[in-house]
Amino acid sequence: VEHRKHGDMQMRVANISAHGFMVDDGAQLARGDRVIIRLPVIGRIEAYVIWTRDKRAGFQFERILRQSDFEAMIDELQPNPRLRRSR
User: Fold this and answer.
1) Backbone conformation region of residue 76, classed left if phi is above 0, alpha if psi is from -120 to 50, else beta
2) SS3 letters for the chain?
3) Which of 17, 21, 29, 59 has the least C-beta neighbours within 10 A?
4) CA torsion sign, 32 to 36 to 39 to 42?
5) Model pTM?
């Protein structure tokens, strides 16, 4: 992700949906922080920290991802082709 204050940051996305995502290594983030994340298929998209707890942080995308784009991104992120859902 790109952060205005911290610059480029490597973060581990623990959970993702069409509305946002959660990282489990976001201790340096605060509620209201803005980042730009680079995702496969989607590209660059802005997200805002909406909650923090311990080292975790939850983000909301600036817009909801289209279902078809979200599914294509998940397919690309799944390393095992046999585990990809057939559509």
Assistant:
1) alpha
2) CEECCCEECCCCEEEECCCEEEECCCCCCCCCCEEEEEECCCEEEEEEEEEEECCEEEEEECCCCCHHHHHHHHHHHCCCHHHCCCC
3) 17
4) positive
5) 0.86
| pLDDT value at residue 79 | 73
What are 58's two structure tokens? 């939850």
Spatial distance between the Cα atoms of 20 and 45, rounded to a whole number of angstroms: 10
Question: What is the phi-psi region of residue 23: left when phi exceeds 0, alpha when psi lies from -120 to 50, beta otherwise?
Answer: beta
